[in-house]
Structure prediction request, 253 residues.
Amino acid sequence: MKNQIQTASEVKNSSLTRTLAHETRKIRMRTICMLSQMKNAIIFFILFGCLAIPYVQSQDFDHIDGGQYSKRIEYNIRHRGEYTNVYNLRSKDDREKLFFGEINSPVEFFCSPSNEGASGFRILMDSLNNSYMLEIKYISNYEWVIRFNRSEWLKQYKVETKSFSISKQLADEIYQNMVFLISNFKGKGVGPRFYGGLSVTFRTVVEDEVWSLWIHNPQENANKIAMLCRKIITDAIANELDESEYINILKSL
Prediction:
């Protein structure tokens, strides 16, 4: 009798296990279907936290008959070393490597006008203190190098650095807008070759990937974000950062 009870219990448990497995498969399939239909929302898990990015008109990110551009999504780390990681820097030119070194920061912006020195910034996170640092970079001797010493110009550049502590809200807003810009940016029509003007690079780290977008003469929202980033650089150099102004602009995009 005891063995019969055990057998009945085992049958019951086996049946319950099959039922749970079947329900789990059904839930998994429904979840996959739901995710495939979520075209209007993208969720990114990042160092800054989990950010839900709202739907906007994709036309705001169309690059119509504009300058050349390059959009890349790659592994962020080429391989993990014993003491330090080796980062994927293939989307960076020599000046960007001069500015940002051998790592990819969560947020990087690089700006290269044809008639003045390059500038940019990156946002770093101190996980121990849960704080955020805005690091401004700019070339202070561009005119001298161009006028007097064009040979080996990269070695002659003097890169100045200014660092500022910023709020998590500003860091999140900049990151969120850059990620959404790169994700939704589309080239339309035929891109003519422009000479001169402005070239910008937006770069972010999303989970295990590094996303980068280089644009020659940006348009629409890309240009708005680029102009705001340039304003942040100009204000920072003058020690006149205004976080509330930048946050309001970013929220309006």
In short: The longest helix spans residues 2-36. The longest strand covers residues 131-139.
